[in-house]
Amino acid sequence: MKVNQLATELGITADTVRFYTRIGLLNPNKSPVNGYKVYDHKDKSRMQFILSARRLDFSVEEIKVIFSKTDHGESACHLVRTLVKQKLAETERQFNEMVRLRSRLAHAVEQWSTMPDNLPTGNMICHLIEGSHQTDGTPARINQDDKITLTPTEVK
Question: Full-prediction pTM beyond 0.85?
Answer without folding.
Answer: no
